[in-house]
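== Sequence entry ==
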Amino acid sequence: MSTERDGEMDLEYGLDDRPPWPKSVLLGLQHVAVMIVPATAVAYIVADGVGLAPGDTAYIVQMILLFSGLATVIQAYTIGPVGAKLPLVMGTSFTFVGAITTVGAEFGLAAVFGAVLVSGFAVEGAIGWQFDRVKPFFPPLVTGLVVVVIGLYLIPTGMEYAAGGAGAADFGAAHNVGLAALVLAIAVVLNLFTRGVARLLSILAAIVAGYAVAVPLGMVDFSPIAEASWIAVPSPTRYGFEFEPIAIVTFAFLFLVSAMETVGDMSGMTAVEGRSPDGEEVRGALLTDGVVSSLGSIFAVFPVTTFSQNVGIVSFTGVMSRHVVAVSGGILALLGLSPKIGAVVTTIPSAVFGGAVLLMVGMVAASGVRLIVLHTELDRRNMVIVAVSLGLGLGIATTPEAIRGLPPAARTFFGEPVILTALSALALNTAVPGEQSPLFDEAALESVTRPGPSDD
């Protein structure tokens, strides 16, 4: 078990600790329960936008689960230089939803998977391979701001789930909001007022309790379980590949954003140990993003990246064991091979999931704040960078129509809150003299800030 250091949280299980197998399975299920709905939601959103048949949608969902599981295990244990040896749960990201839908509707899914195949490894893989060269550009101030905005801009998504899911006929109904509030309350009470297993499994217990209440209320649809088959066999190149230059450039930019998100998630993860991720950890994590995304595209998998909600679980429960997360990866891979088992998990009502997500994304934002406060002096320079970066990121998140006059490509790029926050923080931190700027060494900084000779 880890011991508390400067800025470190009190961890129940440290990075290399191995909880007993029964507890590891339950803790792994807790990670799966929190991420499975948003991870698979990407496929359903794209299916509506592109017009996929139900069979195609079901296949993509299963491949997403399979490759999310494989990538999670690789992050925990590594294969050569690929993997971070950190408890990073992997899944498909909402960052890519707009581009997948737009490119898929205009050029077809073959163009989507062709762009992912090329840009996944070319961008994130290259950044990971050469991270030592770009590491100075990602200090705690920049990565912390990325973590904060990831958490904050996901809060509306959590609220939508808590209200019953966007587009639901009973959206905002009292039974949805009440169920989400029940899940949230149980998780908080168990975490703050109990010890041992009850605290460690507070989120899973809350989801199970919410599910148990939802069943007699008629809020659970069991039909997907009966309709699902027992085994799903991967089918390589099911949709083929096309290489459209516009699609490749679009996805290349989004993979750059994904790399920033991954560095931010890793920073939020290691912040519980009172430190920032080292170069080897970041390199391995980004290589996993790029390599698995490119390989997954062969099997019709949308880009895979780290899941912020699960970073929040680590902070909330104090369980940082990478072996626990490896168990969750194995469970995800099993679900990906067996649609019947996966269908059981996906019957969780949106309101139940929403109560847990609100807590998790809030913890993600809090982890970002913690990272900044622990490693950054909040002087005038850094406060201005925080103000500008969060102002732009949250501004576009709440008022996306503000840039409707821009060309479509520019709207796609600058309409991403993480892009605006990350790029503004990166540009300002690089250009303005300060101790975290990669362009100004200590001597140059002293020459800027040192008072001149007195005229007296």
